[in-house]
Amino acid sequence: MPEPALEAPLAAFLEALARHASPATVDAYRRDLLRFRAYAEESSLESWSQLDAALVRRFLGQERSRGLAPRSLARRRAALSRFADALVHEGMLTHNPVSLTPSPRQPQHLPRPVDVDQLAHFLNTPHDDGPLARRDQAMLELFYSSGLRLAELAALNLTDLESMRVRVIGKGGKPRQVPVGRRAATALDAWIQARGQWAGAGEPALFVGQRGARLGHRAIQLRLASLARERGLAEHLHPHRLRHSFASHLLESSQDLRAVQELLGHAHLSTTQVYTRLDWQHLAASYDAAHPRARRRPPSDEGTP
After folding, report:
1. DSSP state of 163
2. CA dihedral over 86, 91, 93, 97, signed as positive or negative
3. pLDDT of residue 269
4. Is the pLDDT of residue 87 over 70?
5. pLDDT for residue 266
6. Residue 295, Cβ density class (10 Å: 0-12 exposed, 13-18 middle, ≥19 buried)
7. Which residues fall within 8 angstroms of residue 185, CB to CB, at 6 or more apart?
8. Of 135, 241, 244, 266, which one is the catalytic site residue?
9. Does the active-site annotation cover 268?
C-alpha cells in the first residue's frame, strides 16, 4: 500500500495539474511521479519534506541504468521538478532539490537533408494538373523554396502572398518575410487559379482541402508522406525535412550563416548552427582546396621535404 504521507500531496498536485495541462501531460507526469514514489518508498522516505537532491540523483541514475532514453529521463526530471515546486509552494520544502541535479544531455537528432538531385527529381515529377496535384505541388515548392515550418505554412492566408515573397508568423508570434523562388511562385499561381473550385466563401486560407476549409497540420504531413511514396522517393518525407534541406542546401552554396538564420526565423545564431548541417565531404573538399598545408607532397626520392 502507498505511504499515505506521500500519496496525498502527489494526488493533490496531479489534480491541480489537470486543470490547465493537457491529458497527455497529466498522464505522463502521473507515470513518472508514481514510479518515483515507489522508489522513494523503497528508500524509506516517510515524508516529502525529506526529499533531497541525493535521492533524486540516485533515482535518475537507476532509471538510466535501466536503459531509459535521455528524452524520457529529462521528462522524469521535469515532472519531479514541477512537483517539488508545488511542495515548496505548500511549505513542505524550503527549496527545490531537483534544481540541484543536472538535466540529462539530449542527443542531437537532426533529420538528414534530402539529396539535392533526388529532391529536384522528386519536385520535377509530372502530375495530372488537377486541383489536388496543383495544391500539393505548391505546398512542396513553398516548403523547400522558403524553409517554412509546418505551422507557418498551414497558417498562411491569401493576403500573406506578395510578389516573390510571403509574410509568415514564426515562433513567439514573430513576423518575418521570406523570398519565394521562381518555381514556387509558378506553382502557387497554378494553385490559386484552381483554389476557387474548393475554397468556401470568405475562406482566407491559402491552402484548403476538398471541403473548402483550411488544411490542417496532420493532413499536410500525410500528403507529403503520400507524395513521397507515389513519386518514388526512397525515404520518408515530412515538412521539417524539407525545411532542413532548404537550410542545408542554401548554406552549402552560400556559406552565409547569418542569412540562413534570418530566413529560418531563428532568434539566435546558435540555433542555426545546430539546425543546419554542412555535408562532411563538402567541408573536407573546401578544406583541401583552401588550406595551404592540407595536402602535402610526398617526400621525393632524395628525401627533400
Report:
1. T
2. positive
3. 79
4. yes
5. 83
6. exposed
7. 164
8. 266
9. no
Angle, vertex CA 267, rays to CA 149 and CA 139, nearest 5:
15
Query: 208: which residues sit within 8 A by CB, 6+ positions away?
Result: 135, 195, 198, 199, 200, 214, 215
Is 243 considered catalytic here?
Answer: yes
Neighbours of 117 (CB within 10 A): 8
- Tell me, what's the pLDDT at 304? 43
pLDDT at 72 over 80: yes
Catalytic status, residue 266: yes
Q: Select which of 171, 218, 229, 282 is catalytic.
A: 171
Catalytic residue, from 57, 176, 238, 240: name it: 240
Q: Is 300 helix (H, G, I), strand (E, B) or coil?
A: coil
Amino acid at 65: S
In this prediction, residue 89 carries a pLDDT of 95
State pTM to two decimals. Answer: 0.61
Whether 275 sits among the annotated catalytic residues: the reply is yes
Q: How many Å apart are CA 288 and CA 203, to the nearest integer?
A: 55
CA dist 29 and 81 (Å) reads 11
pLDDT tens by residue, 119-178: 999 999 999 999 999 999 999 999 999 999 999 999 999 999 998 999 999 887 889 999
Catalytic (active site) residue 95: no
Q: Is the pLDDT of residue 303 over 50?
A: no
Considering the candidates 35, 57, 64, 149, report the single residue annotated as catalytic: 149
Q: Is the dihedral of CA 203, 208, 213, 216 positive or negative?
A: negative
Edge to edge, the sheet with strand 165-169 lists 161-162, 165-169, 175-179
Whether pLDDT at 7 is above 70: yes
Buried b or exposed e, range 48-85, using 16+ CB within 10 angstroms: beebeeebbeebbeebeeeebeeeebbbbbebbbbbbe
Neighbours of 303 (CB within 10 A): 6
At 285, the pLDDT band (50, 70, 90 cuts) reads low
